[in-house]
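Hello, quick one for you while I still have it in my head. A protein chain has come my way and I'm curious about its shape. Can you walk me through what the C-alpha cells say about the fold? No rush at all, and the record is pasted right below.
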Amino acid sequence: MITPWARPSATISRVKIRAVTLGFDLPYPAVVTAPFEAAARFLTAARAAFDAAGVEVQTTRVAGPDLGPTLASAGSDLASWAADTEAAARGSGIDYLSLGRLPATAHQFVAERVAPILAAGETVFFSADLIDGRLPSVAMAAACARAVKQLASMTPLGFGNLRFAATAHCPPNIPFLPAAYHAGGPPRFSIAVQAADVVVDALGASGGTSEIEDGLVDRLEAAAAPVERTADALAAESGFDFVGIDLSPAPFPSDEISIGAALERGGVDRFGAPGTLYLSAMLTRAIRRTRVRRCGFSGLMLPLLEDSVLARRAAECPPSLHELLLYSAVCGTGLDTLPLPEDVSEAELAGVYLDVAALSVALNGKPLTARLLPVPGAQAGDSTTFTFDYFANSRVLPARGAGAACIVERGQ
C-alpha cells in the first residue's frame, strides 16, 4: 500500500530556473573567444537579474546551430573544432554547451565520430535528428544505437550518454540539453524551469480533477510571471530576443520536487498504475492552457533518473521502455535517462529509436527525444551507482533481448 502524500500548504511554490540557454551561431572553422565572452557576459547578467527577482538560476548554457552546413564544409575536422569550442566556452565561464543538432543525413558521422568527440569532452552535448524528410530514418536509428554503445564503453558508468540524445521533430530554441539548437541568425535565449514542486502542490489540493487542473494552470502562471518579467527586461537591455519559457516542470531528485510524487498525489496508487496516463494527459493539458510565452516541449517530463519517486518505483517494479513510451503519447519529451543493461543490443536500441520516431510522426510532429544509458558491467535489476547531483539511483531496466536487426539490414 502506498502511503498517501501529506497535503500541501496554500503557498505557491516559486520555480527555479534549470537553465538560461543562449543560442547563437558558433564560430567555425576558426574558434575565437569573443562570441563566448559576450555570451558569458549576458548569462552572468541574467543570473544576477533573476537572483534579484528571487529566482535561482542553476546553470547557464549555450546552444549551437544545425550542423548540416558545417559537416558539408570540405576538410572539416569536427573533433578538433569541438575540443577548441568547449575550451572557449568553459574558459568564458559557460556551464554547458550543445554543439548543435546533427541532421538525419549525417548518420555516418554519428555512427563513427560522435562517441569519441563526446568521450573526449566534459560539458559538450550533441543531438541527432531521427527524421529524414517526413519519415523516420533507419540509418540514423542504427547510427544512434552504435554511438550509444560506443559511448557507454568509453566513459565511466556510461555517463557520457547523458550528453547525447536522438530527437524527432524537435524545434529550435529548446532550452533543455541535449535537444537544444539554434535556428541561425541573431542570438536568442530561452528558459528551462524546475517546477515539479508546483505540480506536487497543485495535485495535493482538494476537489475533482477539473478543479485541480484549473488550480495548476493558475499556479504555473503565478510561478512563471517573475521569470517572464525578468526575461523581458533582459531582452530589452541586451538586444537578444527572448523566445519563451519551456514550462515542462523538470523534477529534482527529492520527493517534494518529483513528478512521480505529483501523479501519486493526483490519485494513482503508484506511478505506472492504471490512471497514470489519464493524469499525465491532464498535467500536459494544464501546461498548455497557461497564458505564458512558452517554447520547447512545454509538456510533462518523466526523466527516470532525475526524479526520486520515478527512480524508486522503477526499482520496485521495473517498467519496460515501451510502457514509458506510452506516456509520451500524451505528455512530454519521450524516453529520458533510462539505465539499461550493458548487453542491450544495437538492434534493440535501433528499434527503440525507430519507435520513438514513428510515434512522433504519427502524432503530427510531436517533439520527442530518447536518451538511453547502457551501464557497463550491469545487468537488469542491478543498482545504479551514479554520483551526480541531478540523479537519483535506481535499478537497471530490463532489455527485451530482441530488436530491429532485419529492419536495419533492409534499410530505408
